[in-house]
Amino acid sequence: MITLDNVTLSFADGASRIVAVDSVTLTGRPGVVTGITGPSGSGKSSILALAATLIRADSGRVVIGGTDVAELSRSDLAVLRRERIGIVFQQSNLLPSLTAREQLQVMGELGGAGVASRRRAIRARVDELLDAVGLAEHAHKRPAQLSGGQRQRVAIARALVHQPEVLLVDEPTSALDRARGVEIMQLIARLTRERSTATLLVTHDVTPTASVDEWVTVVDGRIDAGALAAV
Amino acid sequence: MFVAWRDLRFARGRFVLIGTVVALITLLVGFLAGLTGGLASQNVSGVLALPGDRLVLQSSDGAGPTFGQSEIMDAALTGWREAPGVTSVTPVGIAQTRAEADGQHAAVALFGMPAGAAASEVAALAPTRDGEIGLSAGAAKELGVSIGGSVTVAGAEYRVASVGADVWYSHTPIVAMTPTAWASADTVLGGDGRPTVLAVSGDADWSAVAASTGTSVATPLASLPHLETFRSEVGSLGLMIAMLFGVSALVVGAFFTVWTMQRAGDVAVLKALGASTRSLVRDALGQALVVLLVGTGVGLLAVVGLGALAGSALPFVLSPLTTLVPAFAMVLLGLVGAAVALRPVTAADPLTALGSAR
Ligand SMILES: Nc1ncnc2c1ncn2[C@@H]1O[C@H](COP(=O)(O)OP(=O)(O)OP(=O)(O)O)[C@@H](O)[C@H]1O
Ligand SMILES: [Mg+2]
What we know:
The structure holds 2 protein chains of 2 kinds.
Chain A: E1 2-13, E2 16-28, E3 33-37, H1 44-51, E4 59-64, E5 67-68, H2 74-84, E6 85-88, H3 100-105, H4 116-132, H5 148-159, E7 166-170, H6 178-195, E8 198-202, E9 214-219, E10 222-223, H7 227-230
Parallel strand pairs in A: 3-8, 3-9, 6-7, 7-8
Antiparallel strand pairs in A: 1-2, 1-4, 4-5, 9-10
Helix pairs in contact in A: 4-5, 5-6
Chain B: H1 2-10, H2 12-48, E1 54-57, H3 74-82, E2 86-101, E3 104-112, E4 132-135, H4 137-143, E5 150-153, E6 156-163, E7 168-169, E8 172-177, H5 179-188, E9 197-202, H6 206-213, E10 216-218, H7 220-223, H8 228-262, H9 264-272, H10 277-310, H11 324-340, H12 343-347
Parallel strand pairs in B: 3-8, 4-6
Antiparallel strand pairs in B: 1-9, 1-10, 2-3, 2-5, 2-9, 4-8, 5-6, 7-8
Helix pairs in contact in B: 1-10, 2-8, 2-10, 3-6, 8-11, 10-11
The structure holds adenosine-5'-triphosphate and magnesium ion.
The site of magnesium ion has 2 residues of chain A, from helix 1.
């Protein structure tokens, strides 16, 4: 469960400030894919960055699983991101030197020399996840040897390694063709239900095949209630 | 080190290249250090092996004392002998000349000193009779003589009474004689037969005695700069070594700066995924350490190999001081360079991972 409660975020723009997110309130519930759509520059990625704790809000609260992130230090935020949030980027953002399996295993190493038992648990989960995204046979390949869709699948599996409560996805299909895009969306929807993650998904694709349960439309940093009906 | 190891393997070519550069610099530094050590020991081992806690020099012309110019006057000798707390005073005459044996010539350093002085490698060479000399190993080798053979020095012939340690003075091997024989040899060579240096021991107020006798006193090590050849030689080689250290820190630092800048995107992704900055820094430094250790290791092996080959042809010293210490300094300076290059890692903004401009 993730809640943004009356959240505002602005960026410095010379002498003035651009308000990228303006008093936004929204909730992501477990097992539900919440689609965030809207014109370019409307603030969709900014909302995701706030939810991902990559940036702090000017005002309002971001609450993840009962924790108000404003109360956490930078290193606590890193732990929160590592353990309770899964992020899938627009580009798959895989590490070029790692094989598909290692992209997932590395999640167990991010906190430094982790506890051995925990590392073992993660290693066991890695194979199950690769299987779930249909990549068991490609586990030994590096990103350069994978197609765009396969890379995005690895990224999705990577986001789920720590069994996060919240899954944040920013335009996962923008680098893919239509058929591949639909597959990825369906995969995200299936995993959201199977694993009960609260999924926020930014996308331009508002067709029914988008596998989204609820829509939120953002215009100029604000949630536009009227636009929902148009979908 | 999870990602660091895989990066090392993945970008093998680049790391092999920088490792090779580190190895070559280590080789250069190690070789120069060995050569410096070898040259220095051919220069000063005799001085360091004189039988005393302190060495006394006296210059007549008021200029700073040097081994070449020093002459100990009788009054100064008496002053040191009678000074409270001084337990032993060994006058040593030093002169450089040529020696000949069976048609073989060699430049040697004549050390005139009494037999039975406090035990030291130089004192052990001293003969008991005026007609005898003691040869250092280097002198015996260059003259091609052994015990019982005869050697001509300054027009007089001497019987070789002993062959001892490999001690040198100002790049010439040491030949020891009695003070009497040395004084007459020195006179033939144009000197006045006065000793050059006093090797003194005890527990005295050294500077007070030096002041009252018009001499200067220092430990053997601190006396080395008074050896004319020592300062310029060690100075220029030392400067080259220092410059090489600087170059290596710069090269390694520059490499890792470029490397981490190239990885800035990956670092931002790792941070967004929840990597602690500490683990990222440890990864980056660990990676540099691996490259440095392998590079200096290979370089050290090459130094030891080449040093063993060169040892017979060049004055070359293989010791921890000329191998491990420079290698350790290389690793340390390389790490400093890599640490300076860490800025992109600590500064990377995880927010940039969200953007599409990767
Ligand atoms: N790091 C930043 N610094 C300054 N301004 C920013 C920054 N990130 C976003 N903005 C501004 O905030 C506004 C919202 O940007 P955001 O990236 O959230 O839009 P978006 O809805 O994701 O657009 P798109 O669909 O094109 O990805 C824009 O006006 C943008 O210029
Ligand atoms: Mg965006």
